[in-house]
TrEMBL record:
<dbReference type="GO" id="GO:0003677">
    <property type="term" value="F:DNA binding"/>
</dbReference>
<dbReference type="InterPro" id="IPR051677">
    <property type="entry name" value="AfsR-DnrI-RedD_regulator"/>
</dbReference>
<dbReference type="InterPro" id="IPR036388">
    <property type="entry name" value="WH-like_DNA-bd_sf"/>
</dbReference>
<dbReference type="Pfam" id="PF00486">
    <property type="entry name" value="Trans_reg_C"/>
</dbReference>
<feature type="region of interest" description="Disordered">
    <location>
        <begin position="1"/>
        <end position="26"/>
    </location>
</feature>
<protein>
    <submittedName>
        <fullName>DNA-binding SARP family transcriptional activator</fullName>
    </submittedName>
</protein>
<keyword id="KW-0804">Transcription</keyword>
<dbReference type="GO" id="GO:0006355">
    <property type="term" value="P:regulation of DNA-templated transcription"/>
</dbReference>
<dbReference type="InterPro" id="IPR011990">
    <property type="entry name" value="TPR-like_helical_dom_sf"/>
</dbReference>
<comment type="similarity">
    <text>Belongs to the AfsR/DnrI/RedD regulatory family.</text>
</comment>
<dbReference type="InterPro" id="IPR001867">
    <property type="entry name" value="OmpR/PhoB-type_DNA-bd"/>
</dbReference>
<feature type="domain" description="OmpR/PhoB-type">
    <location>
        <begin position="15"/>
        <end position="128"/>
    </location>
</feature>
<keyword id="KW-0238">DNA-binding</keyword>
<keyword id="KW-0902">Two-component regulatory system</keyword>
<feature type="DNA-binding region" description="OmpR/PhoB-type">
    <location>
        <begin position="15"/>
        <end position="128"/>
    </location>
</feature>
<feature type="compositionally biased region" description="Basic and acidic residues">
    <location>
        <begin position="8"/>
        <end position="18"/>
    </location>
</feature>
<dbReference type="Pfam" id="PF03704">
    <property type="entry name" value="BTAD"/>
</dbReference>
């Protein structure tokens, strides 16, 4: 997860040209690409395919969250049927595995190679390279942004744009999620939100913060308890000459925390308020050289 402090030294006085970051998830003509940051898709030969059948999509989703790692049949029973599997669940699982394996092979085309859905003594495994899912690409790009944010913030911003462009909706949007895919979906949504916050922080540092204010207000309405959004909104307002609004933003957050949760804002948010009240020079964005 990208931490706040790694983005705090990104200022526009760094005269750096925007480097070309890694391209978006490539679609190989001979190897399907599985995408689940939104509806579940298999992409091959420049075309996008959906997997038919609710059980097949649920099975593929479970295998995709653990590529290369065998899943025991018992895990898949729970993923497919919850606590109430049918009397013939063993045969039913084998039938779904057979259908999914055949579907993936058909989608690969006559000259292609499908992901291998293998049967092991310990269960079933989908042999799939990390870069063949959009979630893996998102995490790779976000990780690269985290690594270069301090020294090349413009490159980090570009990488975050690439990472967030991979999202088409909620993870496994059209899948009846079992416990495994649901937990992964929740984790990915949190990572996406952190990436959005990091992108907004970099935009405040590298561009005119006025352009980030409306998005910060929208995000703060959706996620009122994420104090990082409040802090960034306060900073953006202050840097655009709206000190009173920045203070009011803090006061409204403090009132809501006290009235609904019985707690005070974090120390970091209180310190940011004091900096704004004191018009601390450190709050001013550096002027580009």
């Amino acid at each position: 997860m990208i931490t706040y402090s790694q983005f705090e030294d990104a200022h526009p006085n760094n005269d750096r040209r925007l480097h070309s970051g890694p391209s978006r998830l490539d679609v190989s003509p001979t190897r399907p690409v599985c995408a689940f940051l939104g509806p579940l898709e298999v992409r091959t030969g420049g075309r996008t395919h959906t997997v038919g059948g609710n059980r097949q999509r649920t099975l593929l989703a479970a295998l995709l969250v653990s590529p290369g790692r065998p899943l025991a049949a018992e895990q898949l029973y729970t993923e497919l049927w919850g606590e109430n599997p049918p009397p013939t669940f063993e045969n039913s699982l084998q039938a779904h595995v057979y259908r999914l394996r055949r579907t993936l092979q058909q989608l690969a085309g006559p000259d292609g190679r499908a992901p291998e859905l293998l049967t092991r003594s310990s269960g079933y495994v989908l042999e799939l390279g990390d870069e063949e899912t959009d979630a893996a690409a998102f995490r790779r790009l976000a990780g690269q942004a985290r690594a270069c944010a301090r020294h090349t913030p413009d490159q980090a911003l570009h990488l975050l744009d690439e990472a967030l462009a991979l999202w088409r909706g909620a993870p496994f949007q059209d899948v009846a999620q079992g416990p495994m895919s649901q937990s992964v979906a929740l984790a990915l949504e949190e990572e996406q939100l952190c990436a959005v916050e990091d992108k907004l922080w970099l935009e405040i540092q590298l561009a005119d913060p006025v352009h980030s204010i409306s998005e910060l207000k929208r995000m703060r309405t959706i996620h009122p308890w994420r104090e990082r959004l409040t802090e960034m909104l306060m900073l953006a307002l202050y840097r655009t000459g709206r000190q009173a609004e920045a203070v009011e933003t803090y006061n409204s957050t403090r009132h809501r925390l006290a009235s609904e949760l019985g707690m005070e804002p974090s120390l970091k948010l209180r310190q940011r308020l004091q900096q704004i009240l004191n018009q601390a020079p450190s709050l001013d964005a550096a002027v580009p050289a």
